[in-house]
Specification:
Elements lengths: L1 H21 L1 E10 L3 E20 L6 E7 L7 E5 L3 E18 L7 E9 L2 E10 L4 E7 L19 H21 L1
Antiparallel strand pairs: 1-2, 2-5, 2-6, 3-5, 4-5, 6-7, 7-8
Length: 182
């Protein structure tokens, strides 16, 4: 009976550690070299999120356009697409695969900072270091201890032009109705 309890305890601890170790940003497969290069990533196990953002922390490499693409959820779209920072938004999910697109050769070293948000809160942050042959990724649940901890407003365009147009039309309609009533 005592041995059975020990075995169950050890099994439970292994499952717990396996879950913790697999949470967060993980590279998937090998990089793909084109005129530039891409790496597929997976974010899972850290909780739900509705925004992913990456920042290049290496001087010699930039993000190629489009910087993030091929999302496993087709409702996700690229929002910010700058040479050093890019973000994507979509419906809340707890599991996503997508490609990050870099300039240069896949043998070039790169340091990539990453965050994902659920609303205004950072759910996970990570630093990925590519040495030209393999990734080393350190995840920071809730962003605690991460090098890059931006506010959500720093990594999204706001507001989208369509929203501004609709808002202006709405205000114009309200003004016109108010004038008629007075």
């Amino acid at each position: 009976m005592h041995q059975k309890q020990i075995a169950l305890t050890i099994t439970g601890m292994l499952l717990c550690f396996t879950t913790i170790a697999s949470a967060g940003l993980v590279p998937v497969g090998d990089p793909v070299q084109t005129n530039s290069w891409e790496q597929r990533f997976n974010e899972a196990g850290a909780g739900t999120f509705d925004l992913l953002a990456v920042q290049i922390a290496t001087r010699d490499t930039t993000l190629a356009s489009p910087a993030q693409k091929d999302f496993s959820d087709e409702q996700w779209i690229l929002d910010m697409d700058e040479p050093t920072v890019a973000s994507a938004v979509g419906p809340a999910t707890d599991d996503m695969e997508w490609n990050v697109h870099f300039t240069g050769e896949c043998t070039d070293s790169v340091v990539l900072d990453y965050v994902c948000f659920d609303g205004e809160e950072i759910v996970n942050a990570a630093r990925g270091e590519w040495d030209g042959s393999e990734w080393s990724v350190t995840n920071y649940p809730d962003g605690e201890g991460a090098v890059w901890q931006p506010d959500r407003s720093a990594v999204v365009h706001c507001p989208v032009p369509g929203a501004v147009l609709l808002g202006a039309l709405g205000l114009g309609l309200v003004a016109r109705v108010t004038r008629r009533l007075l």
